[in-house]
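Dear support,

Our group has been running a series of protein-ligand predictions, and this particular one with tetrahydrodeoxyuridine is the one our PI (initials K.S.) wants archived with full inputs and outputs. We had some confusion internally about which version of the output was final, so please treat the block below as the authoritative record. The input we submitted was:
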Amino acid sequence: MDYKKLISKAVDAKKLAYAPYSKFRVGAAVLTGDGNIYTGCNIENVSYGATNCAERTAVFKAVSEGHRDLRAIAIAGSNKEYTYPCGICRQVISEFAREDMEIIIVKNENEYMVKKLEEILPYAFIKKHLENREKVYD
Ligand code: THU
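Confirmed final output from the archive:
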């Protein structure tokens, strides 16, 4: 698949990052199953733990607009290296990922890597692991 548009939206989304503490801007763009794109940036907080990553901002925007079927997400950080999604974001992406979901790790508009979610989050904890559980509360 050609991810040029998704990548350019992720790079653009960085501009809106609110990152006064880390000074590290991140942008993300998620492609839904029906072809919509939702963007997100990191939004920091003076209480550092309340910070929201760019990927989660984009995923939450898509889901809150009724799109629970995610086909791809592009992520662009602001150093010269590739910025991979953090562990919490990988888990959040996994909740709404279609089986073959692709993660596009962007260095710049010409240099990027396409990974399967499975590659960066092997042995994920998913819904089916809650099935047939022991009854603890009767
Ligand atoms: N950050 C993201 O937005 N996405 C990532 O995948 C890695 C980290 C943000 C969180 C924080 O605002 C800043 O980058 C530094 O950790």
